[in-house]
Amino acid sequence: MHASELVELAGMVATHCTALTGGCRRIPAECIEQYWTCSKVRLDCWARTLKGGDVSRQQLCGTIEEILTGEVLTRIWTAVLSAYDRRRGTDEAEPVARSVMIGHAEARCRALTLLLRVSEIDAQDAVELNRLRRHAERWTELLIEEIESPETFLANHPTGRSTDKFQSSFSAASPNPDLNARIAASVVGCFPEEVFNRDGLCFSLWFARVMGAVDDAQSMIDRLLAEERSFGG
What we know:
mainly alpha; 9 helices
């Protein structure tokens, strides 16, 4: 799953967030656990790449792109889970999401520092990645506004987000497509099943593509976790 699709998911999450924040349904604990586990593995993958060593320019740029693009979903999902916990008077989901967001912010900081220092990233790549950063920040602001102040958002954007499309060039592939798919699936799994039929065929096909990638990802994630435990102990 390409990281750019996580931006699409972030938009869907913001649009349908009231299914979680305004309802009585409890989010499945296994989905929150999967979100944490897969996000942690992806953070570790990013850290290894950003440390340098035997890393190609394409891999380094792809990782930075994945960090900048994936941050949109990370922040939006944190906002939604924070609202979910506030409404229920609980402290279950938001701390997990906030921990992931803090780790993601740290990775973003290291990635942006590399844009200024690493000779393997040429000037054109740096310009494109910086443009992506600005787009991601703007899109996040719009989606946060939709979550926190939906009436104000609709008044300011009566046609929805159609006039503020997330437009940027992307690399051909993301370095961690399987992890992206598992993270997306964990987010989607928190919503009631009927939400997935609300937007018609387009949503259904996108969701089927996400879920189709999940089974292929599990063995890889298990291997990465085993390697991490072996390295740590």
